[in-house]
Amino acid sequence: MAIIRHHNQTNEITVDLSTAAVISDRVYAGFGYPSLSDMEVTTAMGLPLTYPPFVMSVSKRGLKLDQVVCQPYTVGWFGVQGKREVRLACFYLEGTVNMHARPLEGISVVVDLEKMQISEYFDRVRVPVPKADGTEYRPSTVGATTVNRITVVQPDGPGFKIDGHIIRWANWNFHLGFDVRAGVVISLASIFDVQKQEFRRVLYKAYVSELFVPYMDPTEEWYYKTFFDAGEFGFGLCTLPLEPLRDCPANAVFIDAFYAGQDGKPIRISNALCVFERYAGDVMWRHTEIGIPGEFIREVRPEVTLVVRMVSTVGNYDYIVDWEFKQSGSIEAKVGLSGVLEVKGTAYTHTDQIKEEAFGTLLAENTLGIYHDHFLSYHIDLDIDGEANSFVKNKLVTKRVKDNNSLRKSYWTVEKVTARTESEAKIKVGAEAAELVVVNPNKKTKLGNPIGYRLIPRSPPASSLLSDDDYPQIRGAFTKYDLWVTPYNNSEKWVAGLYADQSRGDHTIATWSERDREIENKDIVLWYTVGFHHVPSQEDFPVMPTLSGGFELRPTNFFEANPVLKTSVPTPVNWPNCTSLHK
Amino acid sequence: MAIIRHHNQTNEITVDLSTAAVISDRVYAGFGYPSLSDMEVTTAMGLPLTYPPFVMSVSKRGLKLDQVVCQPYTVGWFGVQGKREVRLACFYLEGTVNMHARPLEGISVVVDLEKMQISEYFDRVRVPVPKADGTEYRPSTVGATTVNRITVVQPDGPGFKIDGHIIRWANWNFHLGFDVRAGVVISLASIFDVQKQEFRRVLYKAYVSELFVPYMDPTEEWYYKTFFDAGEFGFGLCTLPLEPLRDCPANAVFIDAFYAGQDGKPIRISNALCVFERYAGDVMWRHTEIGIPGEFIREVRPEVTLVVRMVSTVGNYDYIVDWEFKQSGSIEAKVGLSGVLEVKGTAYTHTDQIKEEAFGTLLAENTLGIYHDHFLSYHIDLDIDGEANSFVKNKLVTKRVKDNNSLRKSYWTVEKVTARTESEAKIKVGAEAAELVVVNPNKKTKLGNPIGYRLIPRSPPASSLLSDDDYPQIRGAFTKYDLWVTPYNNSEKWVAGLYADQSRGDHTIATWSERDREIENKDIVLWYTVGFHHVPSQEDFPVMPTLSGGFELRPTNFFEANPVLKTSVPTPVNWPNCTSLHK
């Protein structure tokens, strides 16, 4: 299906690619608009520079027009139906390329995207533009502390194969795709079971379904900043070429991605994805045995994994998205946040001057880092050894010992609670001690354990702190819980709705789940949110050291035994420094 | 101070090393015993093999005595004062070296350590010894799946310096020590502040203070298994030589450790520690800027860190302990759990046969993996830019918008709550949205923000599920909260008490903290528990793929700005595979 915005309406056109025929063409009559296109963005950015009131505002501030750059921001929904429009935030370059650090506060420029012209303009208040000093991040202008050179070497080359869209590596194979909205899409991931001598399905499909970034400043120029980066801007559209040897190590292989431009022609993003084997010096498993008299047994297997990476830069922020496959059967999803903070110009130059709420941290003179969240909702359609799965909370519950024969008074045990419907599955993770498991209730190990995979958070869960009745919260209702489980439905791909721009929250997972559908022994989808409450610190300025989060999908009674017991031990690559200091 | 167990009493002898004179010699009269010595362990292990009732028990089971190996287990405290004794658990080798997988259930052997003889013996019940099949983990007997060779190369060699016990690397320096009880000890860690052109103290000292592993089976042969691996067995004493190229990468430097043997002479653990620069292919910070017309700016700094590693194998389990220093100022503590599960022999060969509570997962025929916890308490004596620090919870609280000028209804903001006393500081992490920060209240950044470091869990918190009145919980009371904060006290080093073996919980952090001492603007110590509720799965058998947990200490307004903005970009090391597939 193609979504076309044309003549002030949104057409949903279904095309049969085999016959190149339009099967249906209907006008979408609901709320919300499709994502911005890159051509719209580029055109809208330039409008203020020839708009006399804006030119005057710049001049009144004593700034140079040719050093001003504007960026389109989606406007959200706050109870009133808006036209298809964006607000422009404008920034100042002079002396730096870090324009995000130099906002022109107090100016509001609204662009009507259908007419592609400025429809509203305010110059409400004048605030100092933060200085350029200390904002530069390019190396030509900076000093250096040093670390020695270091690289990864694979004497026999990379160990994975790329067959079209299929990646084959060690005991894994999977389909690697790209979507203009989601970015990287992993699907059809199966792992070879050495014992059964067959590939077994783990994952039907996984991707970032939405990325919601609400800012916590309710004032005029900031209240609306409640962005849906996937649905409004396109997390895939914002994917940019990776830098060899820096974004990905020396043994990486790069893959281009393509999306349809505004004219329908394919646009290439070169080096959009990279694939590499990761060796971080970690241990896959080990044991030293000194308990047997006369013997010293030490077996260690180094951990080598496969990583698929992309980076999406949505304006100021850079999101490093990793999918990591482990030979032990785990899949780890990781996101690294870097880039530049969204800052607000202010008259403050010291915290002592702050007498009323500032909604952020003073990061530099005249520069506030506004509090905000990052909520990445992952669509995780597991197919654990087949389609029909159930979601089980393995609750760890304390038992009192009633038997007087024991000297213990308590212990904990596992109570398995299968979620029958959607309402039984949604949870705030960590509220109780429980393992979160997806099982195939139709299959068991030889010993009789349910075959499953477990979801383990790898960063502190963070659900939304906004009030339930607040507009951005209604639109980003998925953030109310860390985890939701739904039955598979082809029309439910985007957790905050297909038309996210100015959506009213009537097509989010919260509305889908109101039906409270059955999810037991069904093809189910997990929606897990990797969340960050971000209180900026001075270290995040002028560019932010990566902050990471994610989750692990780990086999739990999926295999009959440790699947990497029989891993080969490749001849170690020697290196002259590998000696003891004391020998 | 030396602790000497001699003639049924524990002497605490203080020695002036400069004059080689004994300053004081007092008998410890409280509860609890010192750790086992390695010579005691070795001697006790052998006793059953010449003990006629045991020889008969083995013979009755049709087993070969020369294939039996026993291991000493501490007995805990269950309300009755015991002699200084251990229980032996015995295992069967025949056909495997994985003795832990083949327990001889039903036999209880108690050894009086003072007399070094068997003081109690029961042969209560006969249970099948699990088979040897599938338990072997040495490569000589197994097949293989393959991955290509991969290694780390540093053309100019490692970039750190070892000056005695001081490690200098990039912007960090710290003291690296070793303790027979704690294992690796990091102290005096300071980071060079490029802006201030001086080293600034971050950490006075950090180490694993205790490792508590209670099992969840209240039956006769298992109820007492509630081990304090540091206090009873010695986490340092159980440190074993690392395997070059497998436990640590090719660019690692190894360091020996020493401890005092039973006769007072030094005993060397060769290659006990390794230090290496870690390059996992990750990104320290990055930004791509495409918002400036006509420009494409992409700056990426690869992440290179320094890791200090040790492995302690406490009987069956292997703990991989990492301290990772990041140029961005973070210190990450990580522990990886591998090795062999503590299993229980059983008649069950299929879960269908289990009609009453089994206290574990059926992992193989006749083999139950008993539920248990791992609680590692880290002693973290931060000295953030000086000794006097405060512990602050930056609570994220929802605010309703009262101002009708805003279209927003809510936002969150930060409320800083300084813990005045110990009782105000102890918490279960994750119960509320809050950042956990240690600040120096006497120093601020130029902008006026409090100088601090933040603690971020890197694995799900797990506090104890045992009842408060249960004996092991009284002894391991630190597990009631994930985090405690105490004022520094030289006598408070071991979170479960100095004499952990058969302790009664009268010298744990819970008793220290009853005084509810002031902790504001003091030299304070954080005690953070990295916990795991471990429900064994079949994948953990016969040897367990590493499961990791840990935490990050991250600067938050410690620096005036991103401290790695001015990081050098070493000439990338090229590699022929670094090409796009599509070019």
TrEMBL record, chains A, B:
The active site is at 229 (proton acceptor), 317 (schiff-base intermediate with substrate). One of its GO terms (biological process) is amine metabolic process. Its EC number is 1.4.3.-. The modification 2',4',5'-topaquinone is found at residue 317. Its cofactor is Cu cation. Residues 151-565 form the Copper amine oxidase catalytic domain. It comes from the Eukaryota. It holds the Pfam family Cu_amine_oxid. This is Amine oxidase.
